[in-house]
Amino acid sequence: MKQMLLEHNVLQDAMSLYCDNLSAIHISKNPIQHSRTNHIDIKHHFIRDLVDEGTVTLEHTATEEQLADIVTKALDAAQFETLQGKLE
Which UniProt key words apply to this protein (predicted)? Predict the structure, then answer.
């Protein structure tokens, strides 16, 4: 999609990816492999590559405000309604 937009002279800013895991954000921004990241297979470092390319920026969001949870977790009614209201 990015390449197609470039061919039509449409510049696209980096896409923001909201994450509630600070450790994942730090790993994506640090190119050095540590003992804590040795178990992660190289093919799973694609987010790090996208951050390095400037295609994606990772932004921290509080766990309670993570909109993706509405379709990935069993939420109580109050939390579901809060997130549902933010989708509208």
Answer: Oxidoreductase, Peroxidase
Per the DSSP assignment, residues forming a β-bridge with 19 are: 60
As a whole number of angstroms, the distance between CA 47 and CA 54 comes to: 11
Report d(CA 57, CA 78) in Å as an integer: 30
The answer to whether 86 and 44 have CB atoms below 8 angstroms apart is: no
Give the chain's length.
Answer: 88
What are the per-10-residue average pLDDT scores of the chain (88 residues)?
Answer: 79 86 83 68 77 89 87 89 87
Q: Which runs of E-coded beta strand occur in 1-88?
A: 15-19, 56-60
Q: pTM (2 decimals)?
A: 0.66
Distance CA 85, CA 67 (A): 10
